[in-house]
Amino acid sequence: MSLLKIENLRIELTTRDGIAPVIDDLSLELGAGETLSFVGESGCGKSMTALGIMGLLPDKIGRIASGTILFDGEDLTQASDARLREIRGNDISMIFQEPMTSLNPVYTIGEQIAEVLRRHQNLSTAAAWAKAIDLLDAVRIPNPKARVNDYPHQMSGGQRQRVMIAIALACEPKILIADEPTTALDVTVQAQIFDLLRDLGRQTGTAIILITHDMGAVAEMAERMIVMYAGRKAEDGPVDQIIEHPRHPYTKGLISCVPHLMASLSNDRPELVEVPGIVPSLKSFGRDECLFASRCDRADEKCRTQRPPEMSFENNQNSACWQAGDL
Amino acid sequence: MREETNNSAELLNVENLTVRFPVKRGGFLSRKAYLYAVDDISFSIKRGETLAIVGESGSGKTTAALAVARLVNAFKGKVQLGEHNFLELQDEALRKARAKVQFIFQDPYASLNPRLRAEAIVREPLDSLGIASPQEQQVRVNELFKSVGLRPEQQRLFPHQFSGGQRQRIGIARALSTQPELIICDEPVSALDVAVQAQILNLLRRLQSEMGLTYLFISHDLGVVQHMCDSVAVMYMGKIVEHASRKDLFNNPLHPYTSALLSAVPSVDKKRRAETKRILIPGDPPDPIDPPKGCRFANRCPVARSICKEKEPPLRALSSTHKVACHLVDEKAKSPLL
Amino acid sequence: MSLNQEPIDVARSPFSEAMEMFRKNHAAVAGLVILILIVLGGIFGPFIYQGDPFEMVWAPFSPPGEEGYLLGTDYLGRDLVSMILHGARVSIAIGVSAAFLTVFIGITVGALAGYYKGWVEEILMRVTEFFQVLPTLLFSMVIVALFGASLPMITLAIGLVSWPAVARITRSEFLRIRELEYVMAARASGVRNWKLIFKVILPNALPPIIVQAALMVGSAILFEAGLSFLGLTDPNVVSWGQIIGSNRQYILDASYTVTIPGVAIFITVLAISLVGDGLNDALNPKLRQR
């Protein structure tokens, strides 16, 4: 049985212009120890999925309209607030993009890690403190015995993100959701963080959901990926296979619109492939059509009038495009 | 594409540029300390080419760009643009000379005055420098909107009515309005969504080949730099550690920091992933206010020796297109890491 | 709004968007309507309801509604309606002109300090702090006592004690905005200093200053009332505070003589606060929008 199984999830957001399905009919499965990546531009529903799983949708504005989120067999959409609080931090934890603002500046990092341990695991103060030092060591902060007394402002961005990872891993969660964890960091620090996440995932068997816009990071980190577009799954499947042979024009665009460093440096530099336009506004999210059609050079009448069904290919690669077979 | 010509084609020549900021250290009655954000760097750009300055946060790349444009004051150095030293110009002469150097900013949400219509933003440099009559200005604005891919009826709109990519196009049109000799692009796409980045990068390259523009391109993204530049300067803690042609730098990085930087970039290319050994550099850069006396990278360098902590390596030319500041690079031009 | 997918290509300035938000704020609109009525009453009232506010028209302490005098008469037998209408003129005139003075000094000092920084800022901010720590009531009493209790002097006194707040807001906005990239872009385009200050930075710094100025009108009216209550006022003009001040001994016998001008002040200041709050809501999010 998979650790996390989402079926036909629909999350609705109330906006000024009415109700918009920011997540529309999303299904996925995540096994223990696996790394799954969500890719897409901003406004495509990557982060919303994460908040939905965590039960952290914005109050009154967002709600799960239908579908199930089965975590270890338990449906989180039906769980009480108290139960969700218990799961958050304990079984599923999350790290965010901004390491500068996600730590409380008035407490030392040791106090912040120990607090999580006391709350979720009922450890004594001394035991929690000792474990906080162990965790800092695990996330490769040098000299953890001294650094545990530091305040967040005394650490660099990369170190703070490592502290966030230490807090997220404090209770040995089964799933770690990382929402753009390295976007605010330098590339050499990003390499350190990825390295750390990979090793920790291997050691503890924690499954990782990595949310990112960087195809390179996906290729580096994940085994499977889901490409999201306008709240819908555009394509999913094994990472290497999708990069080799994308079956959705949006995926293709996302891969080739970025100038990547390749094994050999090309001398002629052709124009980058452009994906014209921008992600449609929430107003058009629910329509019965392919929402990518307005930006797609292959779009025809059918794309503009009917929502494409999911088509399956080998190794469980699926694409929601009418022309997926021809791509 | 572009031919190598002799040195007389150099448009911009920067020598010994240094920028320092006073910092408060140790509270009350402390001695005055300085942070050398840019510490004695020299580089040049040929007309019609692109020099990229890459580096991580705190490397001083943006400060260097701002100093070249006289948007922060340099402590010393020379910025030779055509016949004048840009750093020596004062008041009215400086104001007039600003037409020659224009800037494209990183954040398209902060770089446009929210109270001005798009056309007024593009016209601002012409207005303030007294270039052309109002009618001619309008003609110029119309042309600029067309060449950056905006529709004429969008001229009347205000910045908040545009998307990020469109705003960046307005910023580009503004930079082009004075027909500058040098355009400085400070991370022009890093605040944009990936799909929009391609649109802007293509636009910048197209404008360059159509108008023969010269770019100083500041970026932390090596993929983008590789796509845009003719030559690259790598900065670390205020110093240029390696300065080379595009081909030399990406095919044969010599400074250990450059090698580490290149190896850290995640790639979609399976072959590159298999071939590249990731060089992890541990720790963080040292305190920039009180930098170590030897090589500034020595405390994180995987191959550092005792000389590296004693003596600062000068930027040495190993060939006409490749300079590097590392003690351990021998004349055979092999990276000490490989 | 309909599900119209075409982008709206109508130019909408930040100002017009703010006004639309203001219109949607019912409390603020109500405050504005009340304020307009009060101002109109102050301007045209004395022409419509003729009568000298200093003239004794009837027996003193005639309660409201009796003997044909809508709000009754005060301790000298003067018509309260006439006094309130004339008083509105003075109170609002003082409120508005003191607020203008405050904003003028505050913006000048704050803008110069925030734009030039360095020793200019040091000096100007020390001066600002000096005025800020003065005991306001005492200082204005000294001014009025020294230079006479004329309306311009009272306005000046109020202006001199209130400008530091505006100066501080202006300075902090300038410090923030001068580092934004569009200001850099203007500098890179050769825009002159004075134009940077007044045409580029100031318009973007205005929203919180406008809000502060609106609230300043209210506090200036209260301040004037306080001075008048203490008798530090021009005896030849009527203001609401002065009506309260001159009738204060009879507060137990004829409470309406104090209550009515008090209510007038209360309603006016409340209306101004509502408008100020509405402006705050309307102007802030638009300019912080991303």
Structure description:
The complex is a heterotrimer of chains A (327), B (338) and C (290). Chain A is globular, with a radius of gyration of 21 Å. Chain A has 327 residues and is α/β, with parallel strands linked by helices. Chain A is 32% helix and 23% strand. In chain A, the strands form two sheets. An eight-stranded mixed sheet of chain A has the order 6-7-8-3-9-10-12-11, with helices on both faces. In chain A, strands 2-1-4-5 form a four-stranded antiparallel sheet, covered by helices on one side. In chain A, helix 3 crosses helix 4 and helix 6 packs parallel to helix 7. The longest helix of chain A is centred in the middle third of the chain and has 18 residues. Chain B is an alpha/beta fold. Chain B is 31% helix and 22% strand. The longest helix of chain B has 18 residues. By secondary structure, chain C is mostly helical. The interface between A and B is large, with 48 and 49 residues.
Low-confidence stretches of chain A are none
- What name does the CATH topology of the domain at 4-91 and 207-326 in chain A carry? Rossmann fold
Q: How many E strands of chain A? A: 12
Sheet having the most strands of chain C: none
- Count of helical stretches of chain A: 11
Strand content of chain A: 15-25%
Low-pLDDT segments, ≥5 res of chain C: 1-6
Question: Overall pLDDT of chain C, averaged?
Answer: 84
- Give the SSE string of chain A: EEEHEEHEHHHHEHEHEEHHHEE
- The CATH superfamily of chain C appears as MetI-like
Main structural class of chain C: mainly alpha
Tally of structural domains of chain C: 1
Question: Concise description?
Answer:
The complex is a heterotrimer of chains A (327), B (338) and C (290). Chain A is α/β, with parallel strands linked by helices.
Task: Jot down its keywords.
A: alpha/beta; Rossmann fold; 11 helices; globular; B: alpha/beta; 8-stranded mixed sheet; 4-stranded antiparallel sheet
Reconstruct the topology from this structure.
The complex is a heterotrimer of chains A (327), B (338) and C (290).
Chain A: E1 4-15, E2 18-30, E3 35-39, H1 46-54, E4 62-71, E5 74-75, H2 81-87, E6 92-95, H3 109-121, H4 125-138, H5 144-147, H6 157-169, E7 175-179, H7 187-204, E8 207-212, H8 215-221, E9 224-229, E10 232-238, H9 239-244, H10 249-256, H11 301-305, E11 311-313, E12 317-319
Parallel strand pairs in A: 3-8, 3-9, 6-7, 7-8
Antiparallel strand pairs in A: 1-2, 1-4, 4-5, 9-10, 10-12, 11-12
Helix pairs in contact in A: 3-4, 4-6, 6-7
Chain B: E1 10-23, E2 33-46, E3 50-54, H1 61-68, E4 76-81, E5 84-85, H2 91-97, E6 101-104, H3 118-129, H4 134-147, H5 164-176, E7 182-186, H6 194-211, E8 214-219, H7 222-228, E9 231-236, E10 239-245, H8 246-251, H9 256-264, H10 270-275, H11 306-310, E11 316-319, E12 322-324
Parallel strand pairs in B: 3-8, 3-9, 6-7, 7-8
Antiparallel strand pairs in B: 1-2, 1-4, 4-5, 9-10, 10-12, 11-12
Helix pairs in contact in B: 3-4, 3-5, 4-5, 5-6
Chain C: H1 14-24, H2 26-48, H3 80-116, H4 118-133, H5 136-147, H6 151-177, H7 181-188, H8 193-229, H9 240-247, H10 256-288
Helix pairs in contact in C: 1-10, 2-3, 2-10, 3-4, 3-6, 3-8, 4-6, 5-6, 6-8, 8-9, 8-10, 9-10
